[in-house]
């Protein structure tokens, strides 16, 4: 269960409200790189964790912290909206710069919330929880978390560069720092379990003799000129799991052209022509064979 | 631009069609762990790549390969649906086992496609392309790709265990092998750029003196008893980027309770009571202070 | 900011795991009537609240409680999935009842999470945060909250009736009790602000002389026979805001048939025929008039 | 079944087309507070109504009226788009004000419709019908309807304040008036069934002895300092259903830390380390106990 | 504006309720081939129609009719749900056939609506209004309408084959008949404007000398063996618009490998390695050239 | 399986980057009229095709071509973003015109991708694959394809008119030309199967004696004045399938007012009042009858 403290984890100050920046900040709230995503992703990983319990506990701690980051950002949005233009007539008629401010705003921050944050991204697209990865495999989930914190920190640095408000820069420098920590925390969990090399291939509990192993360490090129695939660390040398050597070569077709059964008249829905042409073709083949 | 070969990359055979397995396979087509996702994710990363070109080229090769995997799975779905029950009356009245087959099917594979695959997951939810991560940061994107291939391989092993059809097991063993390769290929790209340690924190081009660095390597606990946070590789020892030592401690509130301006009467929409109580409160405070 | 306690708010026990009930419980997690929705809805209302602060504080308290309810339900899902069937072959071949269990399951609880909860509804549709209403108007938001708790309690009673597992019935009886409280809490907030009558029409800060008040208290019937509209408390007697009398009558057309300008050739995209027929028509009218 | 009258329910005139206002109006068409939502919500409530029939009939009448409101707004959008800028080059090069008009427009109103309304909100997000609440419980549905009309009227007053076009102000004053009526109509239906007090808790047909009633009328605080919860009408005095007294107190943990079974090797997908660490832990516990 | 008649357009009777068929019928309500789609699609086409008015009028008439079809189907769903199983325990323990009925049901028809229709498809995915095509080009829209009625009639015939309830078969035979009419009605509108040949290419108002006309009537093959493309009516003979002859040949690359500028350090977010390797590469090229 | 050629199908040049046009181009990538849609739609039609194989082959060829069109457009977006403004402070403070450029941009093209294309439409809404129609009926699918290429070409001509960059105009003139071809190609496939008349009604394999044929060729008017429906090619003359004559007349109610069973107390969730009023009503009727 959960408790709250009315204070924010870190100060949120806005010196000069900027309603266009309020729109940009939405990406860090409800975007796929944002805080609702990491918060729910870590919670669902924790709630479904089947041990060892220390990973569950760690996930709970960071999930709970992230909830406070959404709060900070929502507060930042509300503060950036104070004094925002709200009527089309004044703006456009009198002032091209302010008129353009209204055009750059997220209109729903006026129309739907009365100057507050939305659970959406900077284009107004609502967050959808399918982005909360929780696979039941700890290594896969830790990589998902590194990814989330990496795209999150990329986003945060772009927001940092977009504003010159000292309060906003201060708040974002804190969020960047936490992303720095969280990225490494999830990599540290990988190391805690034995290290990157031992983790692969994920899941490492599947018996590898059941995979078609002649294809397991070969980089395949798809160039239509059938030349050598792009070379790099991935095309030769030891594989990352230390179990094999990488090789490379052009992709080949091991399968045949697929043949599906003709349309089923019982299911209905095909055109007569589909069924009769197929039947005719079958007859020609059959006659030829007999 | 792209070309095609009518043959499949690997054989797709189904010995005993199973329409319920056709539903399960949908997860590998249009699920968040599935092939449409990796295919489009790698393509968008490649198409937006601003160099060095070898990473772009490698992305194009694997994206193109993945397109062929969707094809294989769509073929497998169609083959598993051949001979599927299609009418409620026969099934339920005569045969509890077959009746249950119809109940376990994806009805849209009958109603919408006439026994073919859908671009949806195993619950019929359409794939939505917001899952195609392409951040413009190569390290973040490589971790996103490791994640995609890891959750993809986890899914594939579960599908492998779910069926006993030899053709399906063979096809899936190939897909598992390719996931093995692709996971490591993206980790190899990380190594190709200098290795995991050098990549962090992602993005590594942001000047770290601009982040609030006292928070950059500290694991924070949120336990309401204010005790020590969960210990592990993440709470002490060298950080993963080799730049600092991890520390840990309970989370503290550095900020204050947030104060937003009262509702703006010009924006409209607040209740009178909200505005008057706030005004009254402000007066009381003001009177007290004067 | 937020803290956690590893213990659950209320015990969650499952005596006899039922994977089909695990699917039903998803509706209470990620359904539109579920706990993710109320949790985020109350948080966003709180984070955007512009006073008086007591409503903000109350919202924070209940939002934080709801987070713990998602945790309870996610735990209940995981417990109900223990021992679930996982392979099609065993099930269908040997046992019609268990085979039907697999058919009734949410396949993604096997394939995507490895026997854990998803942030989706009982049909596997991910929760989308557009359902988190936070309008900036306290009365509208309180009614939204009554609605959420009412549909939530309706759902909970249906889940209660669906199971006979004593542990599940106990857990749900707790959730029902909390819904009882929360429904009334939001109505109490309405009373706290002055009562239902005073709240209407919402928002009550808009000057009513600016609305077309001859239509403000009239129930309009749309029956094609132009008879009397359905009678009830809404068609006569004092209006709910005490400001007028309800009346009723058949709906009338006060407007005309709409006339839009012809397609703009500069925008492009219309067929030639659309433009020429319209032009011709205009000419005929013009000629007739001249 | 349904019939139409080519005339509009109320006049829709635009004196000075404003394409940015055309974008704002979209929120009232396809937004969650908009007219598609109420129209379909009332229809689905009516079509599923299992009596008494007068509520079904009333729902049908208002649903049918709302359809005409979508029509009015779609007409208003089309009229506001007449003469809109359509080419980037002219605008930006010659005229900052008009350039900003294009930037403030919904581009799909040019690109997708050729100057007409879309079934989306003001950010271009399509309406999704999960917002049409119809629970089968009349009281819950009436509160959902009050909510819809309240957020709808809040939105309408914001749109009213955003424009100074007399035709638009006139049309919106009509829509505001109808929202005034409809809010009260749904509250009147509550009264018609016996009044607010009798309706609670919703559903009132569930035997309350089956709920965990010690938690049914208690407001729980979640403050980490374990102090008194926020006081108000909800923390003491008679409950809104007249059946009990409100109380309040800090939230307590009645449950334990959840314990899930270890990962199931049959389901596959967990890392070896997850399974072995858990097994090891179990052995230590077992040894200690023996 | 709109009016209603309480009677249904056509009788809806269910002799033997079948809750699994109630799930299947959802596809015809909220599926992409369903009635909500055509209803709203025709309404939005009508409301945005800029003449000639007869097409607008015709669209309004059919849109209004379709609203009544949603009503018929929602009624059919409710009738099919009467007497549905509702508790897991009874079903599974006593009766494999009925147990499987519950497994085949849409659980939200119990949990969310209390035995009524949802605005979703047969997999529970809510309808999303982006499927309502209204392009402002009458010919494109008429083809969109033919498509909608064709996929709709395909769906209806599959539903017809799936049931043996005489009432349901009768209702569906009516819907099939209306789809027959509506398909042809939209084709008739094409003929009314001058016929298929004259309509192409859509839009026919764009000056064809502005298109790269050497590519306008050539079927391009993408086979990796660079052989002849698939032959058919599309590879030779007069084009469908009568303006040219079809030709065919393998696809060629007329463009070059794309070259994007290196990552912009001002935008932030790229890895150092991306920027330095690109810079290094540029230097090598420059040195080589100098 | 698939192969790639690093070169583009057609040159993509941008003389003067325009970030607002980069936003507009998104509609042609991830919009419902865009290239991701046609690409995946044709692929899924091909992969599910059950013969005759020439249609499958043709679909594969054009699907593969369309993949290259997404690539061209993604490249065009990236080139249009080069040199885009990225910081709010500089823009708004110094320059109304450039400030408005930032306001007109898709912020996610900065924040999420670092100046590259997104798989979304011009409003930032992600593409959702439910738009990929593949019904298993060739005629329906061909009409779906004509529709896709028609709305696609309408969109392309609007984009052509929106820009004056010679490189962009050249690229779009190529895409327009390919849309010209593809529209006709799908109509040619209809002719290849026997022609438009023979295709109707779609599906033409359903025995027409099973449809309620008195409604199959009648245009029904819904005007509330019960007058004649709108006349046109659709109201008289031979039907498009040559099997009947069109007729017309006002719509009639053949059904009755629907009567659903009262709420089921076992399902729970209805209000007591709903159940008792219905029961009371039933008693009154019963008493009257006895």
UniProtKB/TrEMBL annotation, chains A, B, C, D, E, F:
Signal peptide: none annotated. Mn(2+) 1 binds at residues 35, 69, 149, 182. It comes from Parvularcula dongshanensis. It comes from the Bacteria. Keywords: Calcium, Manganese, Metal-binding. InterPro entries: Ferritin-like, Ferritin-like_SF, Mn_catalase, Mn_catalase_dom. This is Mn-containing catalase. Belongs to the manganese catalase family. Pfam families: Mn_catalase. The lineage of its organism: Bacteria, Pseudomonadati, Pseudomonadota, Alphaproteobacteria, Parvularculales. Binds 1 Ca(2+) ion per subunit. Binds 2 manganese ions per subunit. GO terms for molecular function: metal ion binding. Ca(2+) binds at residues 57, 223. Mn(2+) 2 binds at residue 66. Residues 223-269 are annotated as: Disordered.
């Amino acid at each position: 269960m959960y408790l709250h403290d009315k204070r924010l984890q870190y100060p949120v100050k806005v010196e000069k409200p900027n309603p266009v920046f309020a729109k940009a900040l939405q990406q860090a709230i409800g975007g796929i790189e944002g805080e609702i995503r990491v918060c729910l992703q870590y919670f669902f990983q924790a709630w479904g964790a089947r041990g060892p319990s220390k990973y569950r506990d760690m996930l709970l701690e960071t999930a709970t912290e992230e909830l406070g980051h959404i709060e900070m950002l929502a507060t930042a949005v509300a503060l950036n909206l104070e004094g925002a233009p709200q009527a089309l007539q004044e703006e456009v008629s009198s002032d091209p710069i302010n008129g353009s401010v209204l055009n750059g705003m997220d209109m729903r921050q006026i129309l739907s919330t009365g100057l507050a944050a939305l659970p959406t991204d900077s284009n107004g697209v609502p967050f959808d929880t399918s982005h909360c990865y929780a696979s039941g495999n700890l290594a896969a989930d830790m990589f998902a978390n590194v990814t989330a914190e990496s795209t999150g920190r990329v986003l945060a640095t772009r927001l940092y560069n977009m504003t010159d408000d000292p309060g906003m820069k201060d708040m974002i420098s804190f969020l960047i720092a936490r992303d720095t920590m969280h990225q490494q925390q999830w990599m540290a969990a990988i190391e805690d379990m034995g290290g990157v090399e031992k983790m692969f291939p994920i899941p490492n509990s599947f018996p590898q003799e059941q995979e078609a192993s002649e294809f397991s360490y070969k980089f395949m090129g798809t160039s239509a000129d059938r030349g050598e695939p792009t070379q790099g660390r991935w095309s030769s040398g030891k594989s990352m799991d230390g179990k094999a050597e990488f090789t490379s070569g052009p992709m080949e077709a091991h399968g045949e052209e697929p043949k599906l059964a003709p349309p089923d008249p019982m299911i209905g829905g095909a055109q007569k022509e589909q069924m009769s042409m197929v039947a005719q073709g079958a007859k020609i083949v059959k006659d030829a064979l007999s």
